[in-house]
């Protein structure tokens, strides 16, 4: 039964069966349940919609051997993205964003959907915001024309939050997000600019207490990622290495000292012209 008034356990089980059996003809029932009052039902509806649409997309693209978008999937992706910004539960919003994998990229790359993902980035829940950022990083090579400008503006704002004197929590969130984009190869800022600011921010005297330790670890990770980014312009690596050595010696926690050693290793790899991935492979 897919009647909204049916017991919660009946609806959840029915939706699970629908997803397992790929009942495309019942997809409309699942769509209506995306706004059910029960969180478990909405979560099951999201899973059913994503699972069935993914299977349908793979089957039709293989059969037609074309990139033509399916109207049903187009509509469903739009509905799911609506859920990702309006659902009351952060778990549901995150479930949607995490579930929309690469098979949906042609649909997610539509301008209106990209605009919705940018809205989801401003979610008050950090994990939802970061999931939307993951999507934008993944979609940048697919449709740079619609993402590059927005992502560049976003990175400028995050960098400004690090550069200015902000509360620890604000700076930490900004550093985490820039690290995510750096690790996905979608950073659009100048590495030299990032490194110049981080050298100033990572003054060992600024490690005031335990509450600042996670921030220093994240800033050291960002410095490490920037040094190893494929850029032709970096700050002078010698002062960076000296700073990292000082922090590795005097850092007040194991996490900070280990992150500083990561910067030292990054400097050595960069000076030797050895990409990080190549070194990892040689060690295995």
What this model shows, in words?
The chain has 284 residues and is mainly α. The protein has 15 helices and no strands. Helix 9 runs antiparallel to helix 10, helix 10 packs parallel to helix 12 and helix 13 runs antiparallel to helix 14. The longest helix is centred in the first third of the chain and has 26 residues. It is elongated, with a radius of gyration of 23 Å.
List the helices and strands and how they pair.
Blueprint (H helix, E strand, L loop, with lengths): L7 H14 L5 H6 L6 H26 L6 H16 L3 H10 L5 H4 L2 H11 L4 H14 L4 H20 L4 H16 L7 H11 L11 H16 L8 H14 L3 H19 L3 H8 L1
Helix pairs in contact: 1-3, 3-4, 3-5, 4-5, 4-7, 5-8, 7-8, 8-10, 9-10, 10-12, 11-12, 12-14, 13-14
Distance between the termini: 53 Å
| Low-confidence runs | 278-284
Largest sheet: none
Q: Portion of residues in helices?
A: over 70%
H/E order of the elements? Answer: HHHHHHHHHHHHHHH
Q: What shape does the CA trace take? A: elongated
What is the residue-averaged pLDDT? Answer: 89
Number of helices: 15
Q: Which percent band covers the strand fraction?
A: under 5%
Short account of what is shown:
This protein has 15 helices and no strands.
Brief descriptors of the model:
15 helices; 284 residues; mainly alpha
């Amino acid at each position: 039964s897919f009647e909204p008034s049916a017991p919660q356990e009946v609806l959840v089980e029915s939706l699970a069966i629908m997803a397992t059996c790929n009942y495309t003809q019942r997809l409309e029932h699942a769509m209506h349940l995306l706004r059910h009052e029960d969180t478990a039902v909405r979560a099951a509806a999201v899973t059913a919609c994503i699972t069935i649409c993914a299977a349908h997309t793979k089957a039709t693209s293989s059969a037609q051997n074309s990139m033509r978008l399916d109207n049903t999937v187009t509509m469903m992706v739009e509905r799911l993205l609506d859920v990702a910004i309006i659902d009351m539960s952060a778990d549901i919003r995150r479930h949607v964003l995490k579930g929309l994998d690469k098979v949906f990229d042609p649909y997610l790359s539509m301008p209106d959907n990209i605009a919705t993902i940018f809205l989801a980035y401003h979610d008050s829940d950090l994990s939802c915001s970061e999931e939307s950022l993951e999507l934008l990083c993944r979609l940048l090579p697919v449709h740079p024309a619609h993402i590059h400008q927005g992502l560049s503006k976003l990175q400028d704002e995050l960098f400004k939050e690090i550069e200015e004197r902000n509360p620890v929590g604000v700076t930490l969130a900004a550093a985490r997000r820039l690290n995510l984009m750096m690790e996905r190869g979608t950073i659009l800022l100048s590495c030299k600019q990032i490194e110049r600011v981080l050298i100033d921010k990572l003054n060992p005297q600024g490690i005031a207490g335990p509450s600042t330790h996670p921030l220093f670890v994240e800033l050291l990770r960002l410095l490490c990622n920037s040094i190893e980014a494929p850029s032709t312009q970096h700050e002078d690596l010698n002062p960076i290495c000296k700073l990292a050595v000082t922090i590795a010696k005097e850092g007040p926690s194991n996490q900070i000292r280990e992150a500083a050693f990561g910067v030292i290793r990054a400097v050595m790899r960069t000076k030797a012209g050895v990409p990080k991935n190549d070194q990892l492979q040689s060690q295995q």
